[in-house]
């Protein structure tokens, strides 16, 4: 048995009303998927490496034309530097994402510590890159390299004489790190906004479905109440007719329950249901009530909201018979106008009878049309001479919307 719309929206409602700890836990789970950020940050780091290499190469070429050599490290050394910093960059970004920014007084020192963890090794990584390229290619080493007994950089010399270079390198990579943080934070915000929109759309669809089901359920007691009164009037005067009506009522209720589980039904089925209801009413008012329903063969192959005609037909019978003892005619008409489908329920009314305010049936029909078609359908009801006309105008639907929705939902489910 399929879950009801209220059951489907229950998890979303619980998520909205959950505790703060649960929301934080859910946010942490959402942040756990780092794979989209990995590709984004890798592309950004490739851009940083290429731009730094091109800048250093062009600047060194300009200085070499003025006989100034070895101011900027060679391109291959810078590539090694960026390759060495890449894992550290990803780790700091991942840790920054997990840390977040709330509350700021507690997370800001942690974010600054991650930034320092990244920028401090930048200059030593370049020195290692210069050392490796010098060993592999035999090229002259940078001024930070000590050509003496040791082949490795002399760290005290680096700390003492190369401090301005270290600060410049740290500043450059700190700016790149901030851009990376901004890029990652913006992408994370986009993901959360997209997920919120998807959850909001799903919740809105579930609420709409629950709303429509509630409107349909309002029709069932109303219909049953009227038909039980009809049968009650026949039990004493004509028991065989009452028995026949009980069988017909069982068939009607079965169709009513079946139609109440679907949002749309075929026009032929809808008119067959209405015809069964009118037959029950005719058994009570055989001397006053005449009915005309279009033949099934001439109906267009279209789908309409389930039970959309039932409240209008009930109004036609109840209000048409009220206030006088004369004959009443109820007829249904189906017509097409372009891409629209017209459904009319027409009943005769007593002469001089003033129409009352719209009842619950009219209100339900209008509300259901508004929810289903969002302004593309409507209901017009009013007196025209000695007749009351209720006309529904709605788009023609040639395939089952319920089946199309089920196919779309199945296509979106993971394999």
Characterise the protein shown here:
Helix content is 65%, strand content 11%. By secondary structure, the protein is α+β, with helices and mostly antiparallel strands. The protein has 2 domains: 5-201, no CATH class; 217-412, 2-Layer Sandwich (Heat Shock Protein 90). It has a 5-stranded mixed β-sheet, with helices on one face. Helix 4 packs antiparallel against helix 6. The longest helix has 73 residues, at 163-235. The protein is rod-shaped and about 120 Å long.
Give the gist of this structure.
This protein has 415 residues and is an alpha+beta fold.
Structural class: alpha+beta
The best one-word shape is: rod-shaped
Helix content: 55-70%
Q: Sheet bearing the most strands, described? A: 5 strands, mixed
Q: How many domains in all?
A: 2
- Work out the strand percent: 5-15%
Mean pLDDT value: 77
Instruction: Please count the beta strands (DSSP E, at least 2 residues each).
Output: 7
Report, as a whole number of angstroms, the end-to-end distance.
22 Å
Uncertain runs are 12-31, 140-158, 405-415
Please report the number of helical segments.
13
């Amino acid at each position: 048995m399929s879950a009801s719309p209220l059951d489907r929206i229950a998890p979303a409602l619980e998520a909205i009303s959950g505790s703060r700890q649960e929301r934080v836990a859910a946010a942490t789970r959402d942040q756990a998927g780092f794979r989209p950020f990995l590709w984004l940050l890798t592309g950004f780091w490739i851009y940083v490496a290429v731009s730094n290499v091109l800048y250093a190469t062009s600047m060194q070429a300009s200085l070499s034309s003025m006989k100034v050599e070895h101011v900027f490290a060679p391109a291959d050394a810078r590539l090694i530097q960026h390759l060495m910093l890449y894992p550290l960059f990803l780790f700091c970004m991942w840790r920054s994402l997990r840390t977040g920014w709330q509350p700021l007084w507690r997370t800001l020192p942690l974010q600054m510590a991650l930034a320092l963890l990244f920028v401090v090794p930048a200059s030593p990584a370049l020195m290692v890159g210069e050392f490796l390229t010098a060993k592999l290619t035999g090229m002259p080493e940078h001024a930070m390299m000590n050509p003496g007994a040791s082949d490795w950089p002399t760290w005290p010399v680096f700390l003492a004489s190369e401090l301005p270079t270290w600060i410049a390198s740290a500043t450059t990579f700190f700016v790149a790190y901030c851009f990376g943080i901004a890029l990652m934070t913006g992408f994370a915000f986009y993901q959360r906004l997209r997920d919120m929109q998807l959850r909001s759309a799903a919740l809105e669809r579930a609420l709409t479905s629950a709303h429509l089901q509630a409107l349909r359920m309002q029709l069932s007691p109303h219909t049953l109440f009227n038909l039980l009164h009809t049968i009650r009037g026949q039990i004493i005067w004509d028991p065989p007719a009452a028995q026949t009506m009980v069988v017909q009522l069982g068939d009607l209720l079965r169709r009513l329950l079946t139609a109440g589980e679907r949002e749309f039904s075929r026009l032929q089925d809808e008119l067959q249901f209405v015809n069964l209801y009118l037959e029950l009413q005719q058994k009570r008012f055989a001397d006053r009530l005449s009915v005309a329903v279009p033949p099934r063969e001439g109906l267009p192959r279209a789908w309409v909201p389930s039970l959309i005609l039932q409240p209008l037909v009930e109004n036609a019978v109840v209000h048409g018979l009220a206030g006088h003892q004369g004959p009443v005619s109820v007829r249904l008409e189906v017509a097409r106008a372009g891409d629209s489908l017209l459904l009319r329920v027409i009943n005769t009314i007593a002469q001089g009878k003033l129409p009352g305010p719209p009842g619950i049936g009219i209100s339900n029909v209008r509300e259901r049309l508004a929810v289903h078609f969002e302004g593309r359908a409507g209901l017009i009801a009013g007196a025209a001479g000695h007749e009351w006309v209720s006309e529904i105008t709605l788009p023609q639907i040639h395939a089952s919307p319920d089946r199309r929705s089920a196919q779309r939902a199945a296509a979106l489910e993971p394999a």
